[in-house]
Design brief:
This protein is mainly α and 126 residues long. It has seven helices and no strands.
Length: 126
């Protein structure tokens, strides 16, 4: 599941909406919405994200957070290290090879390290 999928599922559950109801309302199939929630599909289009925001009638910061989560939720991230240091390439490859073995605590710790160098993403991690 992606951060975006987790947020959408939580919004659905909080509002008592079924996947089938939501899918129909935003103009996608229930299987597509399920795949999107479960991280089995790529990034949703900007247009679809806007339909989801409108469907849940969220505004301002919450709408921005949803859009940012969508941006950060590609289930098959690619890291281009061309032109970076050898350590950057090593880090990218080691992370790709070991991410499935990291615990939730380890993942939170790594995200906190990234937040220290990029405070813009901090509000999305709520």
């Amino acid at each position: 599941m992606t951060p975006f999928g987790e947020k959408i599922r939580a919004l659905r559950k909080d509002r008592g909406v079924t996947m089938k109801q939501m899918a129909k309302a935003i103009g996608v199939s229930a299987p597509y919405l399920s795949a999107l929630e479960n991280g089995k599909r790529g990034l949703p289009s900007w247009y679809l994200v806007q339909r989801i925001i409108a469907y849940f009638n969220v505004i301002w910061d919450e709408a921005e957070d949803i859009a940012e989560l969508a941006r950060l939720s590609h289930p098959r991230a690619v890291i281009d290290t061309s032109g970076l240091s050898p350590r950057a390439t090593e880090l990218a490859n080691r992370l790709a090879g070991s991410i499935s073995r990291l615990s939730e605590a380890d993942l939170r710790e790594h995200l906190q390290l990234l937040d220290q160098s990029d405070p813009v993403d901090e509000k999305v991690k709520e």
